[in-house]
Structures are given as structure tokens and as C-alpha cells.
Amino acid sequence: MYGGALQVCFLTEGLAAHGVTSLLACSPGSAVGDEARRRGVAVAPLVMKGDADVGLVWRLRQLIRQWRPDVLHLHSRRGCDVWGTWAGRLAGVPVVLSRRVDNPEPAWWAQRKYRWPNRVVTISQGIRQVLLSEGVPAEQVICVPSAVDTQAYQPDPRAAAALRAEFALPDDALVIGMAAQFIERKGHRTLLQALPQVIAQHPSVRVLLFGQGPLLEPLRQQVAADALLRQHVSLPGFRADLMRWLPGLDVLAHPASMEGLGVALLQAAACGVPIVAGRAGGIPEIVVPGVTGELITPGDVPALAGHLQRLLHSAELRHRYGQAGRERVLTQFSIPAMVAGNLAVYRALVAS
Fold it and tell me: In what residue span(s) does the Glycosyl transferase family domain sit (predicted)?
């Protein structure tokens, strides 16, 4: 249940409140299907084998013929962004394609790929600008920001003590957290490089790296081989209960070099946690320097260390940034706003 899958569950559940019935077609046995069923959404198994799976056109078209939807909304990139679009167009159904990453594509490919969906919905203005820079027509691309459950993720004065007890941290520890897939572009290595400078000024600091991915074991070994990092860094792995622990952090670090928007950043901001992150993709739409946190040029280790040191030094600054972050999420990244934005796209297509 990564960020995109969670957004699909928010969307389908929210649409039901507007009287819109959704059918979620997803891989058999997938976590998103289980969660959607739990939320009362109808689910249909659909085998998706990837970009070379031309047969997806036929399988999805059969499902469309059976259910006769008014709109087909494609979320997965496992072949659905191309073959799913063709299935919808061949079936005569308006097609909406969500794009959640800011990875650049060759302009010749982007101009062809995105001409076939009726609309492309990006989860941040940063992603929208990437598509526009590649020559995708502006009228084709609409930004509807991702959302966060502000009831599940909110400040909790009890969380600090609970966090330190759960992860065996000293009671007086200042805690930096990072919640991200262990992949290169998230910036774990940049954070580890900055930590010696931070620890030199704040010996009580502890770091929790939440998540899973291909870099987890290599980074675990790197931490274990360094006496300083071994004392200050823990890697608890993936946790499905982050809403319990994020409010207990003093700072969230996310020095990513690429990021569509960053659901973990929205969750941390909703919990009132200040953020230091990379100036990449849609991150600046969440982290406003000097207001809700600080931004660095991706890979700038001294800047990351400096911002972390400054925030750890001032409880008042952390509180002020955290409050502003919570307010920003409430006003700009709510679930009702995300649902309404997508619904407006559907209605415009059906009306036309």
C-alpha cells in the first residue's frame, strides 16, 4: 500500500459519498484490492503483466463491456498507462490517466503517449510542468493534488514518549525520521552523509529510517559497519502504523532527488512535524522554506546538515513550522478536495 494505492482507496471511497459507484480492477491478491473491499468498494481481478502485455487491451475491454462504466480512470503504470488507454478508446469510454511521478520521458514519446487519454491528471504542479515541458498540450493536463487523511494523521502530545519507548530510544533523544522506499532517488545516502555533522552538535540525536526496498540491506550494512552511525541510526523496516509514530518525531528528513509529491511528507506535515527535504518534483508544494520546513538542492550534504542542526536547536521553530505545515495540509491537501477535483474531471468528460 504505497502512496498511489492509498490515494485510489481514498478516491473510490470518497466518490461513493457523491453517489458515484466505482469498480476497482487490480491484480489478484493485491493489497489495494483488499483495502478497497474493506472500504466497501467493488473489486474485479485483472491480470497486469507489464509494458509488454498487449493482452491487457483485450482483458480490460472485456471488463468494460461487462460493467459499462461512464469513465475509465487509469492509475497503474504496469502497462495500464498505454494498453489501458487503448482498451478504453476502443470501447468508446472517456479515459483519464493519473501520473504520480516526475520522471522525465523523451518528448517524442510523451507527445504520443499522452495524446490518447482524454485527460491526464497529475498529483502535483511539478509533474504537470514536466509534461508541459515535454510538449503535452496544457489543456490535456489537469493538476489534482494527492490527499492525506488528516484524522488518522494529526498531532498527538503522547506520541513522543510512545515513539521513544517503542524503538528503545533515550527519553531525552531528539529524533529525526525518514519514511520512504529504500531506492536511490529518495536520498538516504545524503542523510547518512550529513549525520556526522549533525551528531557533532546534537549528540542526543537518533534517526529512524522507515521503509523497505532494494537499498535496505546495503544501507543496513553501511550503518552496522560505522561505529557512529550504528549508535544513532535504526532501520525498523516497513511499518503500517506510521500514524502512531510520525507525530513523535522532531523532524522529518526527505532529501529526495525526484519525487512526484510525497505522501509521507503530507502525512508528517499533517502530524505537525517540520520537514527538511529536497527541492524536487512536487515537494516545494508541501514544504515552504521558512514556513513549514526547509528545502535543499538534492545531494547538498552541508545544507541538509545545517537545516537539521538549526531545527534541532530550536523547539520553538519546530513547533512553528509544524503548525504551519498542518494548516497547509488542511487547506490544500484534504481528501474531499482531491475527490472533488477528480470528480470535476469526470463530469466535464461525460458532459462533453
Answer: 163-328
Residue 79's CB: how many other CB atoms inside 10 A?
Answer: 20
Which residues does residue 99 pair with via DSSP β-bridges, in sequence order? Answer: 122
Set of cell numbers at residue 68: 459499462
Does this model's pTM top 0.90? My answer is: no
Domains and CATH numbers, the chain: 3-147+334-351 (3.40.50.2000), 159-332 (3.40.50.2000)
**For the residues 306-315, what does the mean pLDDT come to?**
98
Label residue 281 by pLDDT band (50, 70, 90).
Answer: confident
Question: How many separate helices (H) and strands (E) can be counted in the chain?
Answer: 15, 12
Measure CA of the first residue to CA of the last residue in the chain; give whole Å.
Answer: 34
Cα-atom radius of gyration of the chain, to the nearest Å? 21
Does the pLDDT of residue 22 top 90, yes or no? yes
* Alpha helices, DSSP H, located in the chain: 3-17, 31-38, 55-67, 85-91, 107-113, 125-133, 159-166, 188-201, 216-224, 227-232, 242-245, 263-270, 301-313, 315-332, 335-351
Residue 341 scores a pLDDT above 90: yes
User: In the chain, what is the greatest distance between 2 CA atoms, to the nearest angstrom?
Assistant: 64
Task: Tell me the pLDDT tens digit for each residue of 125-175.
Answer: 999 999 999 999 999 999 999 999 999 999 999 999 999 999 999 999 999
